[in-house]
Amino acid sequence: MFVRLGAAIAAMTLLSGAAYAQGAKLTDPQIAHIAYTAGVIDIAAAKQAQSKASNKDVKSFADDMVRDHEAVNKQALDLVKKLNVTPQDNDTSKALSKAAADKLAELGKLSGAAYDKAYVANEVAYHKTVNGALEKQLIPSASNAELKGLLQTGLKIFQGHEQHAEHVAAGLK
Amino acid sequence: MQPGRLHLIAASLAIGAMAAPAHAATIQIVMENLVISPAEASARVGDTLELVNKDVLAHTATAKNGDFDVTMPPNKTVTYVLKKAGTVDYFCRFHPNMKATLKIEP
Questions:
Q1: pLDDT in tens, B59-95
Q2: What residues of chain A lie within 8 A of the CB of B56, using their CB?
Q3: ipTM of the complex, rounded to two decimals
Q4: If both were cysteines, with which of A41, A46, A55, B47 could A62 make a disulfide (CB 3.0 to 4.6 Å apart)?
């Protein structure tokens, strides 16, 4: 529990820290990169869950995550193509990917019910973090109206995921 | 074919077209941003549900009691004719926090 909260807070701090460190708001190419990276991370976690999870609800939650995040990321790719924007790698994206790779390795060592619980708990924390970042950093910083719109749609979808994850987590107790 | 017969066919087609919708209505249900609206709707057996998915995600309209389970691809509209009466709670299997109720009169 403390580890999980700690990781979530660390990721949150990274997100806001990176934005402040630049002394200015994030640029659209950076925002697009962060949002896309956040999706890729959850897809990787879900694919691990598809092969490792044992609980039926956890398995179908993982299927839902792959389906939705792939759909949203496809939408994001179509948009950056249309806007002729090249997503730009940045410290926030790098920090997110690093934290996610560590988490994936940590979860990889677990199995059975312990894995199911840890995966779903991390999904709750991860969606909370990403939703907080979308709400407080990414959406307010986005300049392009279509990018802002897509992030707002994403936020609604990911809030749904957060509730869904909480519901699955409650069922595992 | 004689012109007279054509008229007859046209007339019966017209009657047929008029007869069906006289009772059956179309009830539109919209799924947008992971919300089903209206949250409560009324219909009758034989009415058509027009399920409009405005999201980039796939959704389903799945009755809790198993009466129906319709899948809507992203940004697509799917129709479904109601077959059974009852008050049915339904949800999206992919996003179980999307819930609504449909009252189907006989």
A1: 999 999 999 999 999 999 999 999 999 999 999 999 9
A2: 71-72, 74-75, 153
A3: 0.75
A4: A46
Choose among B70, B55, B68, B60: nearest CA to B91. Answer: B60
B31 touches chain A (CB under 8 A): no
Which three-class secondary structure state does DSSP give residue A122? Answer: helix
CA distances from B84 to A83, A124, B21, B87, B100 (A): 48, 38, 18, 10, 17
What does residue A73 show for φ and ψ, rounded to 5 degrees? -70, -35
pLDDT at residue B7 in the model: 60
What is the Cα B68 distance to its own chain's centre?
A: 11
A164 touches chain B (CB under 8 A): yes
pTM of the model: 0.81
Sequence-ordered list of residues with C-beta below 8 angstroms from that of A85, at least 6 positions apart, any chain:
A28, A29, A32, A144
- What are the chain A neighbours of B58 within 8 Å (beta carbons)? 67, 71
Tokens of A26: 């994030």
- Give domain limits for chain B: 24-105
Q: Between β-strands B86-91 and B69-72, what pairing exists: parallel, antiparallel or unpaired? A: unpaired
Class level of CATH domain A2-20+28-171 = mainly alpha
Domain boundaries, chain A: 2-20+28-171
Cα–Cα distance between A140 and A150 in angstroms, integer? 13
